[in-house]
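Aim 2 progress update. The chain analyzed this quarter is reproduced below.
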Amino acid sequence: MHLDFLVCTACARRHDASVPQTVSSCCAKPLYPHYDLEAAGRTLTREALAGRVKSMWRYREVLPPRGDADIVTLGEGFTPLLPAPRLGASLGLGRLSIKDESLNPTHSFKARGMSAAVSMARQFGLKRLAAPSAGNAGGALAAYAARAGMEAHLFMPRDTPRANVVECEQMGAHVTLIDGLITDCGAEVSRRKAAEGWFDVSTLREPYRVEGKKTLGYELAEQLGWALPDVILYPTGGGTGLVGMWKAFDEMEQLGWIGAGRPRMFSVQASGCQPIVRAFRAGMPTADEHVGAFTVASGLRVPRAIGDFIILDILRKSGGGAVAVTDAEMIAAVREIGSAEGLFACPEGAACQVALKQLLAAKQIGPDESIVLFNTGAGVKYIECFGT
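Predicted structure tokens:
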């Protein structure tokens, strides 16, 4: 509605927002949408939100579609921020909460990004979308493409959880299973997209999935009465959610909704796939590919992220960090969270609980701080992880 232009995240060069774009033409890096926030703020006020739709589209003025008719929605967003008193008490914490993204359509946070991306694809008249996915992003693209009457072409590792593959197939997507990782799936999309007439909506390789994910930050601030938490722990594969929240915090400060303070952001990865953790510890500005990546948490099995430099910059600027946890620890934490709070978390979300314990033991997080863990999806999609 108030989208002005796109800006390269590496050099700040402006790009045209009136035509479909992928990565920047200057640096081949992700593009960020830039809004006229002064104009947006005339109608988008904290007070105005009270009467608005309970979805991510309540923040309509800072979301990219030009007209409401272009919006493709299944009611995504405005998921609960759940106090976790029993889990917190077991750790000596009084202000622990879980943002539960499993209640989105398609049961993961990926619904937010795909709603925004598919809405913009509709605006541009695109008909055939493609993406690599290790699971939940595929289900989200399949759902929103079906809702919009578009084709979805998905390339998924052969060991993707069966629930994700079935989900995509039952919503009419064209699914191809690949022997390899999500990076191999992405390479296949890149190789074929020109000849097949596909538009690539891979993570941060188009500008608008991050806009759906940034609504996590808007919601968190609103649900906490416009006071951000001290600490956020976020499971990180491609990192769009973490990146999007940071963008939201900057926009909200410009709107006058919050001050300059920011949460300490902690990226949580699997020990079998930890490119961001390794790069953070080594003081590197970008991350090397994690060779031989493996984890049962399919959303964390991303050997290299195109937005690695953005993620690492956020972690350092916020005074946060990066933590790796084992698959066995994640699976045990799913039961711990479930038995304490009645929430069947995905392994990626449970990884944050394990990381929290590590950070408390290392005194990087204090017992009196307000802490938010992100559960990015539903545990029911990962039944293979829990044996028989």
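Residues 240-255 form the longest helix (16 residues). Residues 300 and 342 are 24 Å apart (CA to CA). These observations will guide the mutagenesis experiments scheduled for the next reporting period.
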